Amino acid sequence: MTVEERYRESYKTGYTPWDYTYTPWDVGQPDFNLIEVVTTKPIQSCKVLDIGCGTGDNSIWLAQNRFQVVGTDTSDIALQKAKEKASKANVECDFMLVDFLKNKIKGAPFGFVFDRGCFHSFSSENDRKRFAKNVATHLEEAGLWLTIVGNADEHRQGPGPPQRTARDIVFAVEPYFEIISLQSTHFGSNHPIPPRAWRCLMQKRYVT
Ligand SMILES: C[S@@+](CC[C@H](N)C(=O)[O-])C[C@H]1O[C@@H](n2cnc3c(N)ncnc32)[C@H](O)[C@@H]1O
Hints:
It contains six helices and seven strands. It is α/β, with parallel strands linked by helices.
């Protein structure tokens, strides 16, 4: 199964085979890492792309905080939920069923790209590099990308999100991005011991 098929199956069955549990990332609220970065860094109101937006909590928070949001995902079930939540919250978000690795997203270029748990899902170095290059092509000059990634420094016994090293992140993104900050953190989670994460804020390199 591809990454996209595995996620589609999880949303359909409500079960995540690799995590022995329900869609554990879908915590019903925006991630505090996103809120902290957007409220403490000079990120101006702009068009933002939420890649692998899932059921939309982060997209909705961004739309409520002066961003024009496009959310993209490969699961129609997740997107249907996202649309329902946005309508209930009375906010405008453009949710699209598009595979980010295969298609250009309408609305580019964006000023800010966010992803929580999409980039980290790809286990091959080549796919992560392709993902990073694609993010760069969707961004304006000097545009920003914030990614939240499972952290391989967590030595865990049981299941959890995919884990990547700092090197994995740097290797994939550095050709296209200057790293502004790479911080060890944890996911916003409903679990008493939230999984460790990296949060990496980057700026698209100037092409000379
Ligand atoms: C771990 S979930 C995170 C969902 C959401 N960002 C959140 O924080 O709740 C990863 C998401 O990426 C989506 N996804 C995986 N591959 C994708 C691709 N190629 N293009 C767009 N979305 C993708 C999955 O369907 C899934 O919703």
